[in-house]
Amino acid sequence: FSDRNATVNCSSCREGEYSSANATICNLCQAGTYSKTAGSASCTACEAGYSTDAARGSTECSACKPGSHASTTGSATCSVCHAGSAAAKSAAVNCTACAAGKYSAANATICTECAAGHFAADEGSPTCAECAKGTFAGATGMTVCTACSTGSYQDKTGATSCTECAKGSYQDKTGGKICTSCPNSRTYTTYTEGSKKASDCQGPLLTYTVSKLAAPKTVTDTANVTVSGTITVTATKGDWYIRNNQHPYTEYYTVKQGHKQAIKGSKLVLMLEPVMANVFCYKESEGYGLYFAGYQNTDAAGNACQDGSSCRNPDSSTTGPHCKVKSGSSVVDSPCGIPTCVWDVACAAGDGTGYRGNASSVAVDGASYACQAWDSDRPHVNFFKPNAFRTATYGVAAHNLCRNPDPRNIQTPWCYTSSIWVRSASCGVARCDETYKYFN
Question: Which pLDDT score, from 0 to 100, does residue 133 have?
Fold first, then answer.
């Protein structure tokens, strides 16, 4: 170029500049272009992946930094990768979308796997979503969350696992947010955690009608019913006592499972009471369920007892009631999962004849006396020495634990004492009521 008249020679444009023919000045290369030699007639566009960082008069282009890109030639600036994509190297022409199961923020150099409890179903996700209630993601980088299996639940979002249903509840569907409780929290339970069906709930059920036209009603725990006419009761599950509320321990019926009983009365108040001990739970202190007589016919895992048998413990095994089940090509003993009783062990129910707790002393006038052994006549003559009937019915044996083998005259656990001055006395065992659970 030459900016004067009568010039002998034209001057060359400097690096970063250019001029056309007959120019009087040199021009700066535009942003996105460069000139690295003097005397250029034009500037060269930056390659894709490069830019001049918005500067004019550049002598070279700069590679886009990781996390950014320039997809066309002649880019004045590099563009940052948008959220959901990344560029790991410099001079990137395009950013790569994050794969499903990964995410990124803007300007990212790498995509990050979704944390456990989260997922990204699509490519190019800017964030990962929390797993919904009833689902979980146990590993990182998940594209979907897994529904909780039957027998489990999840009541929180963003979970990494599901929780087995507690005893006394079940879940028969996948993707459960909560478990369904058994019909009655006091009288019903399941024998294992993680129960998968309603039939896993074990507990008493009585159906009754008070007239031929009345709709049947159901009871799952002790209840009082006033009868004027005829009541028909059916023991659907378990055995039941039907007691005259005025004389509950001398006037009563025992209705076995599957049987009916019709009772007539006029303004008669009946107590409908389930038989829990040795039917739905066993007394650990009584030979680990030696007298258990429930109707359960599967082991704790739900395997059918062989030959139509029910859970029993005739050998007083410490595993409690059990039965033989098929395991592969073999038949093995398997525990039934029956819970241990609290009623009539930690407290005394009814007339005390079923008490099998460990109380073994009495308090009389401020003094404490140990109980006399039931198989002894010292220091007092004993009219209730052990025999097969008394042991099975009242629990008297070669021990000095409080029992009640004389329900006609006393309705609480008692014993003969070791004092020659005190023949017998009540043991003061707490009465079972709603503050005590039926079983563990």
Answer: 98
CA–CA separation, 95 vs 317, rounded Å? 70
Cα 17 from chain centroid (whole Å): 75
CA 387 – CA 361 distance, rounded (Å): 23
How many CB atoms sit inside 10 A of residue 45's CB?
17
Beta bridge partner(s), residue 113: 102
Round to whole Å and give the CA distance between 66 and 47.
Answer: 16
The Cα diameter of the chain in Å comes to 151
pLDDT digits (tens, 9 = 90+) for 77-100: 999 999 999 999 999 999 999 999
Q: Could you give the 3-state DSSP secondary structure of residue 415?
A: strand
The confidence score (pLDDT) of residue 266 equals 87
Number of H helices, E strands in the chain: 1, 32
* Amino acid letter for position 270: L
| Dist CA 392 CA 226 (whole Å) | 34
d(CA 95, CA 86): 5
422 has a pLDDT exceeding 90 = yes
Residue type, 336: C
Q: Is the pLDDT of residue 60 over 90?
A: yes
Residues 321-337: tens digit of each pLDDT: 999 999 999 999 999 99
Q: Is the peptide bond before 379 cis (omega within 30 degrees of 0)?
A: yes
Taking the C-alpha atoms of residue 274 and residue 219, their distance in angstroms, rounded to an integer, is 9
- How is 337-388 classified by DSSP, letter by letter? -PPBB-BTTTBB-TTSTT------EEEETTEEEEBPPTT--SSS--S----H
Task: Identify whether the C-beta of residue 65 lies closer than 8 Å to the C-beta of residue 78.
Answer: yes
C-beta of residue 142 within 8 angstroms of C-beta of residue 114: yes
Please state the φ and ψ torsions of residue 307, each to the nearest 5 degrees.
60, 30
DSSP 150-189: TTEE--SSS-SS-EEPPTTEE--SSS-SSPEEPS-TTT-B
Q: What is the pTM of this model?
A: 0.80
Phi and psi, residue 391, nearest 5°: -65, -45
Read off the pLDDT of each residue in 333-345 and give the average, rounded to a whole number.
96
pLDDT in tens, 25-35: 999 999 999 99
- How does pLDDT run across 116-131, given as a tens digit for each residue? 999 999 999 999 999 9
Cα 286-308-204 angle, rounded to 5 deg:
55
169 phi/psi in degrees, rounded to 5: -150, 170
pLDDT band at residue 214 using 50, 70 and 90 as cut-offs: confident
